[in-house]
Amino acid sequence: MLRWIDVLKYAKYSNPEPPQRVEKTEEEWRQQLTPAQFRVLREQATEPPYRNAYCRTYAPGVYACAGCHSILFNSTDKYHAISGWPSFKQPVSKSALRYLFDDSYNMHRIEVRCNVCGGHLGHVFPDGPEPTGLRYCINSESLIRQELPAGL
């Protein structure tokens, strides 16, 4: 289970190695992604709060990166944070995400990216529920929800 201290260490020193890497040109990303997905994943945009696909979705399944389809979050770790964006307590694994310091807009935050393709997902904050205390505030445009296979 990740804690805030782990997130800070990853952002400051070194992120876990991903199981693989996906690298594409900007043009390849433009062809694959919708314009809204491209703005969020490749240009670090933020979608409008509350008016996004997964803010109020709690169906069972997993959430994968819309860019490379790497599984990032499980629906069992999703919760209603009243932030306007999907919120999660924990990623599926320590190596699923990459953490970077983000001082844009005169704020001090930790940016969260897909560790496989480097796509911008959102930010993580230390004000989430126990036991992790983490709130991963993620753009819906950066995610795709997948049903769990039968029997899982």
Automatic annotation (TrEMBL):
UniProt EC number: 1.8.4.12
Name this protein carries in UniProt: peptide-methionine (R)-S-oxide reductase
An annotated Gene Ontology molecular function: peptide-methionine (R)-S-oxide reductase activity
Pfam families: SelR
Keyword Aminoacyl-tRNA synthetase belongs to the record: no
Organism: Adhaeribacter swui
Any one annotated GO CC term: cytoplasm
Matches recorded under NCBIfam families: peptide-methionine (R)-S-oxide reductase MsrB
Gene3D superfamilies found in the cross-reference section: Peptide methionine sulfoxide reductase (2.170.150.20)
